[in-house]
Amino acid sequence: MLPIGRHYCHRKKLLLDFRVRARNTSRYVEGASCRSHRTREAGSSAATIFKGAELNKDKDKVDLLLAQLLAIEQIKQLKARYSCALDTKDWSGAETLFTEDFTGEVSNAGKSSSMPDKTMKGGKEWVAASRDAILENDSIHHIMLPNIEITSPSEAKGTWVGRFGFKAQAGADFRSVDGYGHYYDTYEYVSARWLFKSIKLSILFVEVT
Fold first, then answer.
1. Domain residue spans in the chain?
2. Most confidently predicted of 25-34, 45-54, 55-64, 68-77
3. In angstroms, what CA-CA distances link 106 with 70, 126, 181, 200?
4. What distance in Å separates the CA atoms of residue 72 and residue 52, rounded to the nearest whole number?
5. Which end of the chain has the lower number of beta carbons within 10 A, N or C?
6. In CATH, what class is 91-208?
């Protein structure tokens, strides 16, 4: 929560920094809407909705809303790339999704011996810990129900519900691992893209069969 005296300045800074991204997005949508009659109708319907909400009377609000929606979508794509990289064992690709000062934490209160409580620094160390937990087993990560907040033009935070599962290779002393928990992330906008600045995985329970 910002102090009341700084609220106006903070909002103005958001608008100034977001406006460039929002205008680029607006031009793209406007150009795309000219490609077909159906798309023009969709654009007209969207404009009607905005007008009904009286957002067209305040351009700053529209710019800010578009920029925030764009940022949220980009962060969702970041999370999806991260999950797919783990499940396809693209370790080098996963390492590119973190800031240089990234920190990671796993907290499970002893619920999983394969993922003990641990604090890590750097994306490489975090990915290495994930690789050591997955090994050569088949894995799947279901990441859902995002709650993302854009806190500044270059910072954001989000919480996600997560389910992860491993299917053991032949000869292992278990058949599968099924775990559930929450991800508490922070993000930073660096070099025209969103990256993970921190991840805390809080494991709720793990089932091993």
1. 4-69, 91-208
2. 68-77
3. 29, 10, 10, 6
4. 24
5. N
6. alpha beta
Packing angle, helices 7-32 and 37-52, rounded to 10: 160
pLDDT at 7 over 60: no
SS3 (DSSP) at 33: coil
191 closest CA partner among 98, 104, 129, 116: 98
pTM: 0.72
CA distances from 113 to 22, 98, 117, 165, 167 (A): 46, 26, 9, 15, 16
Exposed / middle / buried, residue 6 (Cβ in 10 Å: 0-12, 13-18, 19+) = exposed
DSSP H or E stretch at residue 162:
strand 155-167
CB of 102 within 8 A of CB of 122? yes
Q: For the chain, what's the residue count?
A: 209
